[in-house]
């Protein structure tokens, strides 16, 4: 896919049939980069085809890796609350990540510390994300943080410069959906200077996203 990719990438693992269930089954066996080696399992996206909103995080965390579902840990709880406060029905959302395996280091004993996925790993995993967008066909994709935003909008994209704006997909994209980038819910949890303000700004961005999609769509 990219000249900088030193790993095979997920493309060769994509099934011919591109339904969500076929994609999920195939992704369970993906060895497109090294991250499958130490993680417990592939954490694929969840939600229904036709969901008007797709939320894209960075990668599964410790809880997600163990349970096999996206956003079931502390970041997920904050996200659920923010969606509620933004007036977004959870049923209208498909939730996934830019990278489908947990990347971590081990500190003394057994605590597993999240590590940011590299650009190479984000690019390696992108075929799953693109296939999900094509299968779900959302009206709007919300990128939660830089890893998701840069996967879909390129490495030069800066969330800080463009958060909360409705964006068009890059011109050569195989998919059609508007985009909106905002911060990652973990960044809201970590914001020690003014967490309340960080949360309010996050909810504001989600409200823009919710307002941009047609309610009650199939
Ligand atoms: N952070 C993410 O980016 N995704 C998850 O699924 C959980 C935490
Ligand atoms: Fe495949 Fe993505 Fe997991 Fe790498 S992180 S092995 S590309 S599913």
Automatic annotation (TrEMBL):
Keyword DNA damage in annotation: yes
Top-rank lineage group of the source organism: Bacteria
GO molecular function, one term: deaminated base DNA N-glycosylase activity
Keyword Disulfide bond among UniProt keywords: no
GO biological process: DNA repair
Extent of the signal sequence: none
Domain Uracil-DNA glycosylase-like span(s) in chain numbering: 44-207
UniProtKB keywords: 4Fe-4S, DNA damage, DNA repair, Hydrolase, Iron, Iron-sulfur, Metal-binding
Family indicated by similarity: Belongs to the uracil-DNA glycosylase (UDG) superfamily. Type 4 (UDGa) family.
Entry protein name: Type-4 uracil-DNA glycosylase
Lineage: Bacteria, Bacillati, Actinomycetota, Actinomycetes, Mycobacteriales
